[in-house]
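Researcher: Quick test of sequence recovery. Tokens follow.
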């Protein structure tokens, strides 16, 4: 096996990925499958940081029509902490040292997010799971993932989705949707391609941080992505 092309990655997982077919909560079988894939990549000395969404429990932007947006977003941030603790437990059950670092301080369950400490954890071979979004309302977990990737100097944002990459329209609704192998930040923004929100795409563009969008449901794709195999869509 050749060596990985990336030494430090930021993996963005949706909350729905942990729910799998349940639609709500955390599917114990699925989270252990994801943890096993991460452990395989980690064994090749790839430094892995993870940002996980909270949509399997609470999606603040959808609830904001019925309640105060700030309160809704804070509830969504707390949902990401639940998911992060679940992922930490699954990883540590198979012997991978993991640290949950929360942007919202809650010392009893997670470390506070401190950039230099996070980098040190990665250098020591621990997986870091960044919870609590940015701690600010009106910012998505996609934006949090981009911010954390830039702070820890990750080489790529690996955006795990339910489809094979970036399409010109939703492939789950339109069978004739065309997939891009490579696409520019500007095209994603100008064509409103549904990948990540515009704030996170613009931040990646301004800082020349590539995004690799791939299908999490295809077994082994995290490893293939790390090894530089042509999976998904590269945004650069």
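Model:
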């Amino acid at each position: 096996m050749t060596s990985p092309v990336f030494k430090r990655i930021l993996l963005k997982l949706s909350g729905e990925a942990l729910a799998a077919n349940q639609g709500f909560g955390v599917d114990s079988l699925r989270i252990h499958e994801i943890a096993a894939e991460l452990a395989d990549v980690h064994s090749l000395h790839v430094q892995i940081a993870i940002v996980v969404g909270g949509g399997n429990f609470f999606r603040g932007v959808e609830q904001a029509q019925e309640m105060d947006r700030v309160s809704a977003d804070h509830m969504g941030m707390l949902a990401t902490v639940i998911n992060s603790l679940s992922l930490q437990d699954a990883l540590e059950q198979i012997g991978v040292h993991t640290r949950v670092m929360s942007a919202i301080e809650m010392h009893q369950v997670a470390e506070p997010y401190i950039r230099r400490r996070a980098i040190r954890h990665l250098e020591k071979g621990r997986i870091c799971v960044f919870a609590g979004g940015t701690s600010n309302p009106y910012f998505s977990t996609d934006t949090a993932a981009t911010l954390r990737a830039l702070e820890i100097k990750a080489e790529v944002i690996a955006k795990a989705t339910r489809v094979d990459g970036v399409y010109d329209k939703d492939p789950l609704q339109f069978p004739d949707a065309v997939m891009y192998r490579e696409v520019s930040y500007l095209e994603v923004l100008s064509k409103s391609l549904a990948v990540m929100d515009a704030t996170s795409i613009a931040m990646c563009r301004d800082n020349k941080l590539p995004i690799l969008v791939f299908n999490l449901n295809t077994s082994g794709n995290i490893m293939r992505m790390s090894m530089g195999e042509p999976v998904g869509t590269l945004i650069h």
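The chain has nine helices and eleven strands.
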